[in-house]
Write a structure and sequence with these properties.
There is one protein chain. The protein is α+β, with helices and mostly antiparallel strands. It has one domain. Helix content is 38%, strand content 12%. The protein has a four-stranded antiparallel beta sheet with strand order 1-2-3-4. A hairpin with a 2-residue loop joins strand 2 (20-23) and strand 3 (26-30). Helix 1 (46-75) crosses helix 2.
Length: 119
């Protein structure tokens, strides 16, 4: 099992560490521009480090699948077919899922509309 989230990115100016990703108050990934020994994927055990690496490596595929799912939800004509008494759309399960996917993509730095990297 990979290290439970949430995972956060930190920079070198934060906490006087190398730039990387941490979770559960421990460094998961240290990244930079060189191949120094301190760079890499980490975990409390080799199995956990390997699971963290697999999770990171699968991120592009997961992002692609999320974009496809979002496209599917947005193409459905009935996504906002439920309405309040005042006529405003009532969030249904599809709308909630689409909104959740948009937020996940944004947290990953991906524009939900274009699939491009956010700046």
């Amino acid at each position: 099992m990979h290290t439970p989230g949430p995972w956060r990115i930190y920079g070198p100016a934060q906490e006087h560490r190398f730039p990387g990703v941490d979770a559960q108050n421990k460094t998961i990934v240290v990244f930079g521009e060189t191949d120094d020994d301190y760079l890499g994927v980490r975990g409390d055990t080799t199995d956990e480090a390997r699971a963290n690496a697999r999770l990171i490596a699968s991120a592009p595929c997961m992002a692609s699948e999320l974009l496809s799912a979002l496209d599917y939800f947005e193409s459905r004509e009935d996504i906002d077919s439920e309405h309040e008494e005042d006529g405003s759309p009532r969030p249904n399960e599809e709308m909630r899922m689409a909104n959740s996917i948009r937020e996940v993509l944004k947290r990953a730095g991906i524009d939900p509309k274009t699939g491009d990297a956010l700046r």
